[in-house]
């Protein structure tokens, strides 16, 4: 058991022993994830969504693609169980910037329920620049991969971020794609492999697209995307217009 897994198990044990209050509504909770059942139930689920890029769809049918992916599929498959609206940003923020274990457990658990790893697939966690990881004190995506029951046993592909990129949320899709081109290098041979790319939140998908392109250029057979949450296009446009 790794050090991170040991600390996670210890925290789970403590939460079972001393249940506290749900961070979202302050109600007493007995749930081992540290959040109450009502708040977990109220989290916005990303269903139905595009099979290829996880963009929310209005159709009730599963397994469909959005108009853009019908013309040109983004990924072999994409999984993002939550919408990045409602209480999801608060959860992701707690986990990403404050290393809150209850938020990490809950997000990892929800992701684990939605994602079933394909046979012989390899996991590539979106690499953080060492400067960012040092600022936060940990690599939150690597942590997520370790906590999620569906990804923790997958073999890993090693990749590096060549340069630090500024926060991408206020850039449009074209600016993001331009910035992310050449941002990564992959150390492991990916020839013929089925790769699952893991990120925290899929917004325009520029980061995952850049890594997917690199994997394909280096001979990967299939590239999937996996994230905790997907930003609906409408929310992203509002953010961009407001900036
Ligand atoms: Zn609650
Ligand atoms: Zn799509």
TrEMBL record:
Listed Pfam families: Pribosyltran
Keywords for this protein: Glycosyltransferase, Transferase
Species of provenance: Zymobacter palmae
The protein's name in its UniProt record: Predicted amidophosphoribosyltransferases
GO molecular function per UniProt: glycosyltransferase activity
Homology family: Belongs to the ComF/GntX family.
Domain Phosphoribosyltransferase: residue ranges: 183-230
């Amino acid at each position: 058991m790794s050090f991170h897994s040991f600390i996670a198990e210890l925290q789970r044990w403590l939460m079972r022993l001393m249940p506290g209050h749900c961070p979202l509504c302050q109600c007493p909770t007995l749930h081992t994830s540290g959040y109450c059942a009502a708040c977990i139930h109220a989290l916005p689920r990303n269903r139905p969504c595009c099979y290829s890029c996880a963009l929310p769809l209005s159709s009730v049918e599963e397994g469909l693609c959005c108009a853009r992916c019908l013309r040109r599929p983004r990924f072999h498959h994409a999984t993002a169980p939550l919408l990045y609206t409602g209480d999801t940003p608060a959860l992701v923020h707690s986990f990403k910037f404050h290393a809150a274990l209850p938020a990490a457990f809950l997000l990892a658990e929800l992701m684990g329920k939605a994602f079933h790893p394909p046979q012989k697939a390899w996991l590539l966690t979106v690499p953080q620049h060492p400067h960012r990881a040092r600022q936060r004190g940990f690599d939150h995506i690597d942590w997520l991969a370790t906590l999620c029951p569906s990804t923790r046993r997958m073999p890993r592909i090693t990749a590096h971020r060549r340069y630090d990129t500024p926060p991408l949320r206020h850039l449009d899709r074209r600016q993001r794609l331009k910035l992310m081109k050449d941002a990564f290098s992959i150390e492991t041979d990916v020839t013929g492999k089925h790769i699952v790319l893991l990120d925290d939140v899929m917004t325009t998908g520029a980061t995952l697209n850049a890594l997917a392109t690199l994997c394909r250029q280096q001979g990967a057979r299939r590239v999937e995307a996996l994230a905790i949450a997907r930003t609906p296009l409408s929310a992203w446009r509002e953010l961009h217009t407001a900036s």
